[in-house]
Amino acid sequence: MNLDFDADDLRFRDEVREFFADGIPETWRTRVRAGLRLDPEDLIYYQRRLHARGWGAPTWPVEYGGTGWTPTQQYIFWSEAARADAPAQFHQGLELIGPIIFTYGTDEQKARYLPRILTLDDWWCQGYSEPGAGSDLAALRTRADRDGDDYVLNGQKMWTSYAHVASHVFVLARTSQEAKRQQGISLILVDMNTPGLRVQKIPTMDEKYHTNELFLDDVRVPVSNLLGEEGKGWGYGKVLLDRERMVSAATAIFLTQTVRGIRDAATRRRVGGVPLIETPGFATKLAQFEIEVIALQTMVLRLMDDAARGADSGPRGSMVKLRWSQLTQAGTALWVEALGPESAHFAPLGNGDGPAEDMPYALQGALYSRVTSIYGGSSEIQHNIIARRALGL
Amino acid sequence: MDFAYSDEQQMLRDSVLRYGEEHWAAADRLKTLAAGPEMTKRRWAEMAELGWLMLPIAESDGGLGGSAADVMAVMEGVGRHLMAVPYVTSCVLVPALLEGSEAGAELLGEIGAGTAVAAAGFLEADSGYDLRHVTTRTVRHGEGWRLSGAKVHVEDGADADWFVVSARTAGADHESDGIGLFLIDRAAEGLAVDGSRAIDGHRHARLMLDDVAAIPVGDVEAATPVIEAAVDRAIAAQLAEAVGSMEAASEATLDHLRTRHQFGVAIGSFQVLQHRMVDMVVAGEEARSMAYHATLNLGRDPHTRTRAVSAGKVRVAESGVYVGQQAVQLHGGVGFSEELIVSHHLRRQMMLAQAFGNADHHRTRFARLGAGA
């Protein structure tokens, strides 16, 4: 039992550290630390830079253009990225649809889609939730009716994040009506330029554009856009469950960035002539946050260690998701607290210097963080998953 | 990076667990505790025979030189079966304080063999949990030393044959330099030992020293780094103990949720109880992670070590008390009874939470250490 990296891992760490030593623009820093996504063009630039280095897909096998890294190497890569204030890679192509394509897709689909995910030439979004199907996804009603060699899709998707940027969407739709709701659902790949698709922005409380409604009105796509077997789409979500632990793991590693954001803000701000960070009240709150981040990161390390030895880590992925969302909420709230009265200054009115240098990102991050315990299986759903899978309740 | 016990450590862990099931059975808890120190002595002799008492003692001091992870393997079982024995104090803390010293050589042999028990006293009336605030005075008499002062809490000190105490040889009351370690025979003239039973079956002491003869250990003006490193080892061992206890309390609670029926159904079918149970298990996972984090950082530089140990102490103290409290809550009325094992886990968790510094103390220590590497 030890926490040490071996010589190969240390060499790898140096290599990654060198890569991150430059090329991360200063202007990204605050947004990244606040847990906010960068603008699409910045994420595309970043993804292409990684891809050029051969590191476009840290979790994919080599045969599909991935790195084939060990879990320890993945951990090192994400830690170094976090340390350099680099962003997390956009995950909907890389972690959500990519692995389903290389697991269940045809050779033609693999050849057509996977390389363009690596370069972010294709930007994928996820068409799962609907107005009546949130946590209860199996209640979805969007239909895909067979018409000759085409499917004709009709329905409405909700919370389709980045649909306004995406070139493609993967849609869960009903291809038949079955007694069991989870059956008769298929996974279909749709080009966003297909006639009949309409994207409508959903404004969110953080005033950042993330997400949309997606209307499908007689959207006609060839049957060859079906991924895997017709009617088996629900089961493909399972491959995601197994990979989910890696996605949660990666995001949890990036929490150290928030610690730095808070630390900088609390060092800059003075209260009664003393830096806020030196006041006992704030110092212990920051310590508490940082300690809980250490606990979560050690859970992540154990997860990676399980993965390395091929052991089943059970529902620890759900635990990490649960705790990560709590901590990103606590951390960004503490950052806003560190800004004090100036945290009320959200946007400049154009007649002076405007808000503090952290703004609006600190507050946007705090507001955005509220959705992290709702999306991707709400905290309450995670509790249900853990109760069922780990405790047999 | 490796979080798995080696085969040897797994065997050690298993044998402690088996021993606990046989000799510290939950169903016999009250009887075991009622038998008092005589029972503890019997158990102690058994543990000595199994070689566990000399495990943490350095090889150069005649022990087995077990690693921190070896100690963790033992402590999980100690916690799971609530063994109310002075293992952490006598076999982990004192040997770390006396390591390599001429003064302690003979005693360490006796501790490992189970023929002597030792405890360590640092805290004083005004010190809080600060190990550097030491006012116990020393006077030199030729080769010998005499100590006067009071130690307000000596963990597991009630039945100790020897005491290791900190005392000031130079400097002001709060300075970290000028503190020495001294060994005191329980029978020494001028020493008063005021023992108390704790709610978890441990037996502690308060020491009054009035010109007591004492044997100096190591550099009598520079013991602070030794004390802090030794206490960190003791804390790490207790974190593993807390984890073992939390997991036992959670398992008992899960069992109860499955078997207890109310309103015509198993109470584990209620979502509110399922979610509470999940929170207990998540707390247990965090605590186990923190026990590893603290233990596996013990050998690193003092900044890294103290940061890791304080972080572990804060989170495990919080999680341990939480799990103990919820175990009682989910058992309902019977959880509050003296007899039921979960109430013993809560009592132990409450005591562990404040041993060697409570969460507040360690949160402050962590904050003062600043950013990590």
UniProtKB/TrEMBL annotation, chain A:
The protein's required cofactors: FAD
Every Acyl-CoA oxidase/dehydrogenase middle domain range: 125-219
Protein family (similarity comment): Belongs to the acyl-CoA dehydrogenase family.
SUPFAM superfamilies: Acyl-CoA dehydrogenase C-terminal domain-like, Acyl-CoA dehydrogenase NM domain-like
Taxonomy, superkingdom: Bacteria
Alphabetized PANTHER family for the sequence: ACYL-COA DEHYDROGENASE, ACYL-COA DEHYDROGENASE FADE29
Organism: Sphingomonas aurea
Protein name: Acyl-CoA dehydrogenase family protein
Protein keywords: FAD, Flavoprotein, Oxidoreductase
Domain annotation Acyl-CoA dehydrogenase/oxidase N-terminal: ranges: 9-119
Domain Acyl-CoA dehydrogenase/oxidase C-terminal: 231-390
Pfam families to which the protein is assigned, alphabetical: Acyl-CoA_dh_1, Acyl-CoA_dh_M, Acyl-CoA_dh_N
Automatic annotation (TrEMBL), chain B:
Signal peptide: none
InterPro entries: Acyl-CoA_Oxase/DH_mid-dom, Acyl-CoA_Oxase/DH_mid-dom_sf, AcylCo_DH-like_C, AcylCo_DH/oxidase_C, AcylCoA_DH/ox_N, AcylCoA_DH/ox_N_sf, AcylCoA_DH/oxidase_NM_dom_sf
Keyword Oxidoreductase: yes
Acyl-CoA dehydrogenase/oxidase C-terminal domain residues: 236-368
Oxidoreductase as UniProt keyword: yes
Record domain Acyl-CoA oxidase/dehydrogenase middle: where: 124-212
Cofactor: FAD
Annotated keywords: FAD, Flavoprotein, Oxidoreductase
Source taxon at top rank: Bacteria
Domain Acyl-CoA dehydrogenase/oxidase N-terminal: 6-98
Pfam families associated with the record: Acyl-CoA_dh_1, Acyl-CoA_dh_M, Acyl-CoA_dh_N
Family (UniProt): Belongs to the acyl-CoA dehydrogenase family.
Protein name (record): Acyl-CoA dehydrogenase
Protein source organism: Sphingomonas aurea
